[in-house]
Amino acid sequence: MLRSCCRPLERCFGRRGGDGLLWHMDLKPHASGDFSIAVVQANSHLEDQSQVFTSPSTTYVGVYDGHGGPEASRFINGHLFHHLHKFATEQGGLSADVIKKAFNATEEEFLHLVKRTWPAQPQIASVGSCCLVGAISNDMLYVANLGDSRAVLGRRVSEGRRNPVVAERLSTDHNVAVEEVRKEVEALHPDDSHIVVYTRGVWRIKGIIQVSRSIGDIFLKKPEFNRDPLFHQFGSPVPLKRPVMTAEPSIQIRKLKPQDLFLIFASDGLWEQLSDEAAVEIVFKNPRVGIAKRLVRAALREAARKREMRYDDIKGIEKGMRRHFHDDITVIVIYLDHHQNSSTGRFKEQCTIDCTTAPVDIFSLNSRQTQQD
């Protein structure tokens, strides 16, 4: 049932506009509302992957922000939801334990892939991905993440306040730029005074990577890969006594309430440009159709402003070179209408078992459509 999740999305009405590296899907139904997706590519190969699985009873959301290459995020795209469904079926429903098992199974399968392809492709040991998952079932919301992609809730507050909707962060940023995360990593490695190093303008684990949790990054989890002469042909050895990263997700569970209006799931490419509050305000004040694309455009305008450029200038930059101006950006907005009884039946009737998966790569500007944003 979930195998179709790993296929590109020609069948799901996604479109590209005047920005040849921007793909979007304006609006589709899920069991308790609508959802919208948008992706803009900056890297030579799109390292962000994303998907939404819908059924009349369950909605899964996944945002996978790869680093070092696209292999890990693409692998998660093809495997994680299958494991979620399998373990949820075996254990009679979703739970924190089901989610942890699905993450662990995906990590273990990717490790097996690395071991198989290692002799011919040693660099695959350095490929990894952040992993952000949301699951909605029976008005319960589960948010699990590794890395620094982020889920933010837009929640209505009491009338009379200046801002009728507030932003509530539902995920933990596992990034050593955050002092609390830095201290957590240092506490786990008291005998390594160089476990976190400030280099190239940011804090990095072993001077290499900013995130402390991921799928993949095997050479930072399995010391035997680091010591192998084969890997030394690709990269400099990093002395490890024990793993310096983990695939253990942070999980939050909450009962959805009538005042919970919508969820924003996005890779850190969005949050580097927009605050939680700014993103929530954009969603709250604008029409649903194309809302994810609107958030991506807002982020691109902010990226252009920081470089004293116009958004149209950013659109003219080819992938690869464009990474100097912004990261790959993935946004999924999930509207929550579960509390409106008159709407619930309509959405359940419209919602079939389906998996919407964003493209594996987005076409270059050379094949840009003439349609303008």
UniProtKB/TrEMBL annotation:
Keyword Magnesium assigned: yes
EC supergroup of this enzyme: hydrolase
Annotated PANTHER family: PROTEIN PHOSPHATASE (PTHR47992)
Source species, domain of life: Eukaryota
Protein name as it appears in the record: protein-serine/threonine phosphatase
Species of origin: Nelumbo nucifera
Taxonomic placement: Eukaryota, Viridiplantae, Streptophyta, Embryophyta, Tracheophyta
GO MF, one example: protein serine/threonine phosphatase activity
UniProt keyword terms in alphabetical order: Hydrolase, Magnesium, Manganese, Metal-binding, Protein phosphatase
